[in-house]
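agent> fetching stored inputs for the NDP docking request
agent> found them:
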Amino acid sequence: KVRNAHEPEFLQAVYEVAESVVPFSEKNPKYKINKILERMTEPERVIIFRVPWLNDKGGVEINRGFRVQMNSAIGPYKGGLRFHPSVTLSVLKFLAFEQVLKNSLTGLPMGGGKGGSDFDPKGKSDAEVMKFCQSFMTELYRHVGADVDVPAGDIGVGAREIGFLFGQYKRIKGEFTGVLTGKGNEWGGSLIRPEATGYGVVYFVQEMLKARGDVLKGKTVVVSGSGNVAQYTVEKCIEEGAKVVTLSDSEGFIYDPEGIDTAKLRFVMELKNTQRGRIKEYAEKFGCEFFPGQKPWGIKCDIAFPNATQNELDDTDARVLIDNGCICVAEGANMPSTPEAIQVFEQAKILYAPGKAANAGGVAVSGLEMSQNSLRYSWGREKIDDKLKSIIQQIHESCVKYGTEEDGYVNYEKGANIAGFVKVADAMIAQGIV
Ligand code: NDP
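agent> prediction call returned; pasting tokens
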């Protein structure tokens, strides 16, 4: 705690895991004796670097770049890059720590890492984003590689940024390798990767509902965010017959009581991915209400998907959701619920899926992209979607195995933490004190 005193998000993520893993280690002393949790909470390596670039007016801009290489016990470091002004070392350490357990849960051979910058792509021209990405990769390239560390996208890093980063890596190294995932389909990307996180979180909810003899069809759903994860959550919900009534961004949320249909979703995708506009334009276009500065948790729903960012849902929001009849919360984002909110969900014994289990579909398909790159081959859409579904089913089973309590309630948080921990811990013990 003293060593990381100025890292609140990292401490929050570690405490949340320690609550399940410490009692488990007490019962399985080999983990305690080998100080596995203590070792897992210290990154193997952190790289911090200067990112200078020229804006369109010819002025010099400086940002800070990071890569946290957290754990490589079960495979090369793997995890996204985030470009957002709120990025700090604490935020990236929390994300990297969560990523280690998440990647382990997928069953694929991937260690955990995370990186990014306090650069804000919002309001920047394509040329400025390109210059920033090139400068960022000019330093990062020496620390990553297809068998070393394979970054991907996250908040503020989508197809455009991955393209610029990949182009610069290829130019410096003079080789075409799978050093990043989330690449375009024509140049080494995998089908279903853009959809994978959003689809995966919906598949996870379907597994949870199925275990209670329930289905997604006919349910009312609220979603926060309107980026990659939110968009494909909505797409899959529509396909499965659920009604999605909200989307948000950092300026507020829209409430469409009629439900977001496929045509409206196409508008959102064009608005957010191409025009880089604001979600309030949805309200103007379709004549529904926009709530500035607010989050959508007050809207009555059966299922909530917090899909924007960390700590966006607190205990007051959690109580409102439950009072309004919400039966399930599944995290598309990483750590969107505060510890107090999680307590409210678990006390009410509603279905609660933590991000490291529910949103693992994205990194799982990134893992499949790495496999396809190694094979120099591309699999078809159906094959990848089937693999994604079976990985999500297997994560659900692992959560049930380690998280079922005496009264039959499945504590998915505990289940995900322990299941993710065991595999990494066993590999660390086998590899000695390194
Ligand atoms: P995007 O950048 O595509 O979208 C992010 C969305 O969240 C935007 O609507 C953005 O609004 C909103 N948002 C971001 N920061 C804030 C903030 N501080 N306050 C309010 N709203 C905010 O990112 P993704 O959809 O890729 O990521 C969303 C979440 O999902 C993150 O927690 C990420 O770590 C997690 N995740 C993503 C995966 C992926 O494959 N992409 C995989 C697993 C998890 P605005 O445009 O106004 O900033």
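agent> quick read of the result: Residues 133 and 165 are 5 Å apart (CA to CA).
agent> awaiting further instructions
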